[in-house]
Here is the input.
Amino acid sequence: MAENNQKITSNEFGIDTSKLSKEQQGKLEESLSVLIDAARAVIDEHKRAK
Here is the structure.
């Protein structure tokens, strides 16, 4: 799987983080990153299986 180090931000998903603490924002960004990486892995695996 090709590594994509592009940082995904909550703003790209329209998530309002203005009421979150910096720590909560960091955790959200990390969770989104893990989710996106997992989705990419599934897509890559699906493409290889064809």
Q: What stands out?
A: The mean pLDDT is 85.
